[in-house]
Structure formats: structure tokens, C-alpha cells
Amino acid sequence: LAKTTQPISMDSYEGQEVNITCSHNNIATNDYITWYQQFPSQGPRFIIQGYKTKVTNEVASLFIPADRKSSTLSLPRVSLSDTAVYYCLVGVMDTGRRALTFGSGTRLQVQP
Amino acid sequence: DSGVTQTPKHLITATGQRVTLRCSPRSGDLSVYWYQQSLDQGLQFLIQYYNGEERAKGNILERFSAQQFPDLHSELNLSSLELGDSALYFCASSPPFFGGDQETQYFGPGTRLLVL
């Protein structure tokens, strides 16, 4: 099963823009790309979802290139409360069967 | 609060035992997903049900099984438990979708399983 990879960790300061990239070179044709935020001992929380090009909502933007083999989550002007682990989630085809795979997660630490 | 409920919150048991984890999806959601999260493995997809039918399957062990009932709640059964099964088990649900695989999943608070 192809891996869905992300950087292990990132550091930032309050007010900066943070971009987290996920590589998913085995994404299934019809599958969307979804990003989640997780705080310790809590379930992941939906941030944003897209299929191609660019999607923006009130908290983030998602950039997806034409080949869809990667995606970039952009968090504008982060604050201390954005310190969390961020995961991408995609569907992949594995031996003819669809499976869901989370990225390895990126631990974002925001400093004052 | 996502609207997805999971019981129990914590479970402590011994190796070789069997446990059942329960999940109630959000009202109106037809899909239920199960995930395992351990320290060294990250979030691992186990299985998905859609309106009572198995829809997608991950690396779920043969010792594990799940089902979704007519009222759409789901149960994950873990048997012959081993120390390595200790983990957080999350359930998620998503609303009905038509065409393509666009699922916005809403996660429950998880069940923390400790196998001694």
C-alpha cells in the first residue's frame, strides 16, 4: 500500500502563514483530499476538503496540483491555539479495493 | 461535540480476552468508519460500513470484526487481544454521498483500550 507522507513536524510563530504538504501518489481517481486537525486525546476535526485546484474556507486554503499526487494545507496567520497535529486523508486503491489512508501527521508548534 | 458517540470511553482488559466497542453515528449519517491510533502507527483505517454494508476495508486483523446494525449504530469486536492492541479506537460517521468519494467524516471522542 503506497504511503501517504507528510513532514513530521513544523515550527512557526503567531501571525505567520503555515503551509503543510502531503504526498499521496496513489490517490484513487474519484477520491477527495481531506485535512484534519487533532488535539491530544481528541478525535480528529475536519478542516477542509477538495478535489482539485484551490479550495478556501474560513479557516484554511487547500491547494491541489493538476496531477493530484500532493496537496498543501495553508493556515493563514496561525495562533497559539493552532498548535496541534494535522493529517491528510485520501482514498487509495489497494489490490483493486478502495482503502482510506491517513498521512503520517505533521505536528505544528506555534510559538508566541 | 461532533455528534458521534462512542462507548465505553476507557477499557482495561487482559490478553486473550474479547471486547466490543460501540459507536452511534450522527443523526442522518449512513456511513461509519473505524480507525485505530497507536503511538507508533498513527491513524490506521480499519473498515467502513455504508447503510449496513461493508464498503471499504483497511488492514483490519482477522481477530477484529465489525458490523453496522439496522439502526445504523456500529460495533467493533476485538478478540484474542494482545498487548499490541492497546490503542485509541475512533469511530467516524459521514452523511450520504452520491457520485465520487467525497466524505466529510465526523469523529467521535474515541475509546482508549489498554490490554494488560
What does this protein structure show overall?
The complex is a heterodimer of chains A (112) and B (116). Chain A has no helices and 10 strands. Chain A is mainly beta and 112 residues long. In chain A, strands 1, 3, 4, 8, 9 and 10 form a 6-stranded mixed β-sheet that branches. Chain A has a 4-stranded antiparallel β-sheet with strand order 2-7-6-5, with no helix packed on it. By secondary structure, chain B is mostly beta strands. Chain B has strands at residues 5-7, 10-13, 19-24, 31-38, 42-50, 53-57, 64-68, 74-78, 87-94, 106-107, 111-115. The model of chain B has no long low-confidence stretch (mean pLDDT 92). Chain A binds chain B through residues 1, 28, 30-32, 34, 36, 41-46, 49, 51, 87, 89, 91, 97-102, 104-105, and chain B through 2, 4, 33, 35, 42-45, 48, 55-59, 88, 90, 92, 100-110, 112.
Shape verdict of chain A: globular
Overall average residue pLDDT of chain A = 91
Order of helices and strands of chain B: EEEEEEEEEEE
Percent strand of chain A: over 45%
Biggest sheet character of chain A: 6 strands, mixed
Q: Number of DSSP strands of chain B?
A: 11
Query: What is the CA-based Rg of chain A, rounded?
Result: 14 Å
Mean pLDDT of chain B: 92
Number of helices of chain A: 0
Number of helices of chain B: 0
- The shape of chain B is globular
Most extensive interface between two protein chains, with residue counts:
A-B, 26 and 29 residues
Q: Kindly, what is the distance between the CA atoms of the first and last residues of chain B, rounded to a whole number of angstroms?
A: 31 Å
How do you describe this structure in short?
Chain A is an all-beta fold and 112 residues long. Chain A has no helices and ten strands. Chain A has strands spanning 9-13, 18-23, 33-38, 45-50, 53-56, 61-64, 70-75, 84-94, 97-102, 106-111.
List the helices and strands and how they pair.
The complex is a heterodimer of chains A (112) and B (116).
Chain A: E1 9-13, E2 18-23, E3 33-38, E4 45-50, E5 53-56, E6 61-64, E7 70-75, E8 84-94, E9 97-102, E10 106-111
Parallel strand pairs in A: 1-10
Antiparallel strand pairs in A: 2-7, 3-4, 3-8, 5-6, 6-7, 8-9, 8-10
Chain B: E1 5-7, E2 10-13, E3 19-24, E4 31-38, E5 42-50, E6 53-57, E7 64-68, E8 74-78, E9 87-94, E10 106-107, E11 111-115
Parallel strand pairs in B: 2-11
Antiparallel strand pairs in B: 1-3, 3-8, 4-5, 4-9, 5-6, 7-8, 9-10, 9-11
